[in-house]
Each structure stands twice: as C-alpha cells, then as structure tokens.
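Example for tutorial group B:
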C-alpha cells in the first residue's frame, strides 16, 4: 500500500473512505473502544462499519461459540465489541490484494505501481491484453499505463524506450514472448484537481465578475422590461379605440320607406 499523507485519525468518527486505507486494525480497535462508551456513539456504528468494510473484512461472531471464538481470536483478526452486546463481537482484518480481481476503483488509489505489475505478472504471463477490460479500466483509473513489444536487444538498448520511461518515473514489467518482450510501464496518476466551472452568467458584458448585488439589479431590469411589455399590450387596445374615434361619426341612414314617402310628397306637390 502507498503511504499517502493523511491527517492523523484522532477519533473513530474521523474515519472516511480516504483515510481508512492508512489505518491499522489495532488502531481501529483502540479508537472504537474509546468512543463505544459514549451515549451518542450507537447511531454511528453501522455507518462506521461500512467505511471499515472498504479496506477490511468485517464479520460478526458469537464469542460464546467455541468454534467461532477459536477462529476469530487466533491472532489474525482484531476484535472489538458492539454497544449492543446481543450483536456479539466484530472481527476485522485487512483485505488482501493477491489477484487482479481484488482490485477496485476504491483501493486502486492506494496500491503502488510495483504491486500492480506484480499482480499482472501473476495473470498467467499473458501480458496487458490478456487482462479483462473491466480490470484494465480500474487500473487505468489510478495509473498511466503504456506498453510496447520489441526484440529483447532493442528494448534493452541504452537510452531506448525502457530507459526513458524509467527515467520518467515509470515502473516496468517485462513479459517474454518468444524472442520479443512486451514491456508494460506503470506510473501512479497524480490526484485530479477538481476545478469549479464558472458560467458566462457570472460575468457582465464587459467581462467583470458579477457580485450578488449586480445579479439583483439584473433581475430587477428583466422584471421591469417584462412589465413594460405587459403595459404595451394593455395600452394597445386604447390606441386602437383612439385611432377609430378620430373619424367623424357616420350620418344617420334613413330607411327605404322614408325615402319612398319623401319622393311621393314631392310629386304630389
């Protein structure tokens, strides 16, 4: 396991998915016993056991069962008690990484390059392509991997690819393939730095960073424009009425009967 620098774990409550890999089983037992008597501790037990399971095998056993007591108290397991005695004792031990199938996206960050290459070498000597794709994805999530297959004399040539890779911090595994050799180079990836993405809305038209007060003003401006559009829509019918009212009122239309009567009157005269 790599010895990454982690803040000291002063309480069992400080355990998380990152620092659990750098804590020993005896440390867990000591920290657990320190907190177990606290009345506020019981609600945290299950969550802590799930964190411990990331790097340790965790089993519950009955100490009154002689067979189980002999199995889990043989010195290869560390044990501690639950706050509820009815749940028996807990036994833990580090998860051994002896095969490629033991690798996971969680523990790959805490394995060294020589260990990964050793696991690959145990894989029947088939080389990089013989590893299942899912396992290769796990390895490449924590390591930069590159391969090359060359004649032995060319691979070992002074100043060649092998020497350059080693000088650049890579570990190398050589897999013989007849008179040729497949060289697998592995180098630990640097921890990814998460950058907070900044959207264009955080800047004004001149490229200056907006302040919360500026955002409030923008909201007010948008609201004002919307209100103006609503007002325009409300005023429009009034303007239409004014437009039509500018015409003079039409003359009264007389009925046809009135016209006929009027014409007879003239004839009679």
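The residue assignment follows.
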């Amino acid at each position: 396991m790599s010895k990454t620098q982690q803040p000291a774990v002063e309480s069992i409550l400080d355990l998380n998915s990152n620092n659990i890999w750098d804590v020993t089983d005896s440390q867990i037992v000591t920290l657990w016993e320190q907190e177990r008597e606290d009345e506020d501790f019981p609600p945290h037990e299950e969550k802590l056991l799930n964190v411990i399971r990331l790097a340790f095998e965790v089993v519950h056993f009955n100490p009154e069962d002689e067979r189980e007591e002999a199995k889990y108290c043989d010195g290869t397991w560390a044990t501690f008690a639950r706050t509820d005695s009815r749940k028996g004792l807990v036994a833990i031990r580090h998860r051994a990484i002896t095969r490629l199938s033991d690798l996971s996206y969680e523990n790959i960050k805490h394995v060294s390059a020589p260990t990964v290459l050793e696991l690959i070498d145990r894989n029947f000597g088939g080389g990089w392509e013989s590893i299942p794709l899912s396992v290769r994805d796990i390895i490449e999530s924590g390591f930069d991997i590159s391969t090359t297959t060359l004649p032995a004399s060319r691979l070992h040539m002074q100043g060649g690819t092998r020497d350059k890779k080693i000088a650049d911090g890579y570990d190398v595994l050589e897999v013989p393939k007849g008179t040729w050799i497949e060289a697998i180079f592995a180098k630990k990836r640097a921890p990814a730095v998460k950058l907070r993405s900044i959207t264009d809305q955080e800047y004004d038209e001149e490229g200056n960073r907006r302040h919360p007060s500026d955002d409030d003003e923008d909201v007010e401006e948008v609201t004002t424009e919307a209100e103006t559009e609503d007002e325009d829509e409300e005023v429009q019918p009034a303007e239409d009425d004014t437009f039509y009212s500018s015409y003079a009122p039409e003359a009264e239309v007389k009925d046809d009967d009135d016209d006929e009567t009027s014409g007879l009157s003239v004839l009679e005269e």
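The CA atoms of residues 211 and 240 lie 44 Å apart. Compare this with the pattern of hydrophobic and polar residues in the output above.
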